[in-house]
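To assess whether ligand presence alters the predicted conformation, the chain was also submitted together with LLHOTIJI. Input:
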Amino acid sequence: MSSKPRVAVLGARGRMGSEAVKAVTAAEDMELVAALDRDEKRETLTEAGAEVAVDLTHPDAVMGNLEFCVRNGIHAVVGTTGWTDERLATVRGWLAGSPATGVLIAPNFGIGAVLTMHFARQAARFFESVEIVELHHPGKADAPSGTAVRTARIIAEARRAAGCPPAPDATTTALDGARGAEVDGVPVHAVRLRGLVAHQEVLFGDEGEIFTLRHDSMNRGSFMPGVLLGIRRIGQTPGLTVGLEHFMDLGS
Ligand SMILES: NC(=O)c1ccc[n+]([C@@H]2O[C@H](COP(=O)([O-])OP(=O)(O)OC[C@H]3O[C@@H](n4cnc5c(N)ncnc54)[C@H](O)[C@@H]3O)[C@@H](O)[C@H]2O)c1
Ligand SMILES: O=C(O)C1=N[C@H](C(=O)O)CCC1
């Protein structure tokens, strides 16, 4: 990779993509060489000599973009959501054919959001009950948020490893959705409200005690230090990395 990575942004006219274009342009240690949105051809990436592509598009678009990048040896920093185990396996398959290429999939670029997940992992085994509430702007396509899904999986994994029983819940009748979506056994509730950007609460409860982790992204600029960190690190990190925490030296 060049000493100043040559960066392309996909989804450049979107809420996140337009912020990323500004952030990359303002960063002195990288160069913006392409800014593409829907209906612009992916070949622009290779023509512009892009070394890192930042994908901030849509769950329906991200796989095609990523396949093109990996097949052309372009590293990718992905904020787009909609990830499943099957999709991750497909990306690993592409990367097997391009072993020097790196892909970072970051469910959330917010430093505080990554720390919320890190602390949730630590807290998970100490409380009988846990539920997640995520709150986002009404323009969001997916529910629950990628961050909430990842947080639930991290908590569930930590609770399984510690041998925790399922959280108590005496509900026998409920309207559809009243108890949220169950992600790996953790109830996740999604709110969509004009005025919100991206917010999450992780609620832990035990006898006489509630412990709450809350993170608020008040604007999309809050995600940009994480996007830039991903761009700076992905060239030295071949293969698939899921979660920005792997670039944050958080320890265990
Ligand atoms: N990881 C994070 O920290 C983080 C933060 C915010 C949003 N997101 C995710 O990023 C994605 C984008 O969010 P947003 O709020 O900016 O959405 P948005 O709808 O404002 O922007 C998406 C942009 O992508 C464009 N697009 C669609 N298909 C495309 C394609 N094939 N090639 C190029 N561009 C294409 C659209 O025209 C649009 O301009 C969503 O999946 C969202 O959940 C992630
Ligand atoms: O605005 C969005 O859309 C966001 N998507 C990510 C998610 O689904 O977790 C990150 C937060 C903002």
